[in-house]
Amino acid sequence: MASQQQPPYPMQSRPPVPSSPMGGPPPTGYRPPVAGAVPGQQQPQPQHPGMPYRTSGTPPPGSPMMRPPPGIRPGMLPPQQQQQQRPPQPGMPMTPPLANTVMYQQQSALTGSPVPQPRTPPVLGATTHSTPGSPPPVSQSPTISAGSSAPQSPITEQHHRTTTTRKRMYPDQITKAYMDQPAGQIDSFSSPGFQQQPQQQQQFQQHSPVPTMTAQTYPGNQQSQFQQPMGGQVNALTGQFGNMNVSSPQGPAKSIPLLGAAPIITDLNAPAPPIILPQNSSITNSPYANAEESYKCCTINAIPANESVLKKSKLPLALVLAPYRTSEGDDDQVPVIADSVIARCRRCRTYINPFVTFVEGGQRWKCNLCFLLNDVPAAFDYDAQTQQPVDRWKRAELNYSCVEYVAPTEYMVRPPQAPAYIFIIDVSYSAVQSGMVATAARTILDSLDRIPNEQKRTQIGFITVDSSLHFYNLNASVSEPQMLVVSELDDVFLPTPAHLMVNLSDSRELIQSFLEKLPDMFKETANVNNALGTALQAAFKIVSPFGGKIVCLQSTLPNMGTGALKVREDPKVIGTAKETPLLNASSPFFKSFAVDCSRSQVSCDMLIFGGQYADVATLGCLPRFTGGQTYYYPGFHASRTEDATKFAHEFSELIAEQIGLEAVLRVRASRNLRMSGFHGNFFIRSTDLLALPNVPRNQNYVIEVAIEDELRGPTACFQTALLHTTCYGERRIRVVTLCLPVTNSVPEIIASVNPRAIVSYLANKAIERGITSKLEDARDAVVNKTIDILGAYKSHVLGLGKGSSSPQLTVPDHLKLLPLLALGLIKNDAISQTTRISTDARSNAINLIRTMPIQLLIPYLYPNLYALHSMPPEVGEISEKGVVLPTPLNLTTERLEPHGCYLLENGQDIFIWVGRGVVPQLCVDLFGLKSYDQLHSGKMTLPVVDTPINKKTNLLIGKIREMRRGNYYPAVYTVKEDSDPSLRLWFLSHLVEDRGDSTMSYQQFLQLLKDRVNAGSF
């Protein structure tokens, strides 16, 4: 019986072990006693509050790895020497297992070695972004480094390796123990202690709270060979490198050795280095004076004083923008200035902001970009509505980095545009048979009340297309919808052009009648042709006089009329240099048409349903140059509830989105800074003016910055101005200002790197290189830039010149996850070296990376992996601070236990991995099935079962679907360990830290970086 099993090798007390003769850390497993401790008594453990999981924005300062004592600025502390604890002594009181916790754990029939229980997970906060200056929320989640393990004898380690390759048998007592065995009957040797960090990282990290050890173990829970501490002379050299620090205004930054240790993924949401501005840089003390990362951030938070310093640092200088992101709650609303007092610089046209200077008794203000003196408007200190003076220091533009002005008439070429939507719906055979037409009609019908129409001005129209064009007269003067068919494709004309776009409110009944009849209009069709290009030209003629949005729902490859396409995918060239042409548009029509749309303030959205080859690369040109969005649904069929639900949700959110219309975007910067490159969905109208007929919510833009000459002053500023019309008919200007310090010090620049912004920049540059050159060059560019950054740190911070080699790859603490994210980018579908992904899927990944905000991009490159079978009681429950999420695991098969059940999500898909040795009762509780054999792999909807684990998992899936900004609705896939090979390989391809057929593991990638850094000259 399980209750009678004892550990094969009980833990024995050890005498104190002296330090290494080389001066490095003590040998593995040694824990010196605490001063004043009484032998045989349990010692107190250091406790540190955990860092809450946040939905967006910059995580709060004060995470477990970075919180300094009170009164000391972040970054000023030297590396802390950690306290260590002795191993538990025989006879020490046992810690009982957690009560009321359903633990889907198994005990090996061969060994009884202990495994720590899951730790308290982070709490998902109720808010979705951080507020500068506000105290950070605190959760009770500890941070434990992946890869920690208790000391084991060589025999035990060999025994574990043997048991992991042997098929597990789960006797009846194991299932009984899971179901109803009292906790007191489980023979545990729980003891207080903490999980050891690898030796290379102990000197840089604080202790985590103490996990509880129980005798309920997971079979095969051995650690990776890369997670074991390194010893001997390597430890001594590592310690020497660890003492080297980056000198910066924030203080010395800790150096972290990477080789031999698993990445600490809980720090993926750690805050970027703080922006340290000189005193009195802002004219007010508002904590909201500088831009928040979710609106605008820079790859480095300290700007080089000249181009020479930037080149020495090897760092890219670029801005990452999401100026029209969604707001969450009343506390997150952008302040609106409605008094028509807009103060701008006469020379550079900068808007007044918190970083200007008032001179001459406040009568004039000095521009913080070009330093010109400007007069303060007479109405700046006067409220025209109340006819009374106002306090200028309370004005929003002097206290907030992001504000919106209600634009006066001089900012308008014409009256504000009314929202206009024209839908082009493919009604060919494949579109009708897949159920796309019926689902689209029902979704539009159900979403009519959600389409922005506050002023009752919204216009709407429909075109259906196969080998002919079908227009619909929905004018309120007719009694029922009228179909008008045009079969001439070479020279398209509009029948009754005045009645093809109608007012949504006036013609509501006719629109509803049409949408109800649409699914049956073409249900008997056998037409397999499609003339999308001609339909686009007709829609452009209808909507171009006043501007609007064209929404295309395309299922068949366009094969007739203007812009006809052919199947060009060749499986033989996938993964080779010849694949690049397949990632570019095959017909010039779509790009030239998109440019014409941009000039007329017309945007295009594409929803592509790919049963077969759909040429996403070509059709994606329309959204790319008109500021639209692309959605791809491979293998769509509405008979699958999951397909219909995903499409209906995303389509409904798309047409209900509070968009901006007829917009232009410009970024201004301090003198001698110039915008040199642009990435995103827009059309470049002039050297620095971006035209966006449609501004979707939460779309990302990356803009490269060049330094032309020496920068004047201690700070540099960037100001983004987005002139747009709201979907409620109001012309507005959204202004976002970011101020950064200027420095001549390369170490200070390296100490200020924002790794998430760097990754966003690298992703966009890699996409650009991949579609203009070849995918191999894109991967090489990511690797080379990562090597340059680490090499510059080695040369300019550690002071190691050319020819000096190091046995470790040492990086500053805030960049310790940059290699991991770079590896995730290299392995992403957009540029990965594989022959298993279609060109349509790769083109879709490219479109996603080009538009994703940072909040979505990071999990897309490095997904989140959670263990469902060992969730603590509080996980999956709703607390005061939101839904409690499990602690994420490292993406490696070493974390997948044969009896385990795991959830992996990347923002686009959700996978539930089920091991072949799963406990039968888990199948009953989670899936409502009696055994593993009854479980089917593939896309599915998790059933609702009245059990704790099912309720928690459904709640987690729901929270994952709505916690990030964006319209995406991830589908759920069940993946059995012995399921369909293609589905299994798809899941395993997300395990970034593992080695693939043609890709490196994380440790191999680190070794490559180390060798290249040691061999290079920086």
From TrEMBL:
Domain Sec23/Sec24 helical: where? Answer: 756-858
For region Disordered, the annotated ranges are 1-166, 183-230
Keyword list, A-Z = Cytoplasm, Endoplasmic reticulum, ER-Golgi transport, Golgi apparatus, Membrane, Protein transport, Transport
Concerning Gene3D superfamilies, the annotation shows: beta-sandwich domain of Sec23/24, Sec23/Sec24 helical domain, Severin, von Willebrand factor, type A domain, Zn-finger domain of Sec23/24
Q: Where in the cell is it found?
A: Cytoplasm; Endoplasmic reticulum membrane; Golgi apparatus membrane
Record's family? Answer: Belongs to the SEC23/SEC24 family. SEC24 subfamily.
What is the protein's name according to its record? Answer: Uncharacterized protein
Protein's organism:
Circinella minor
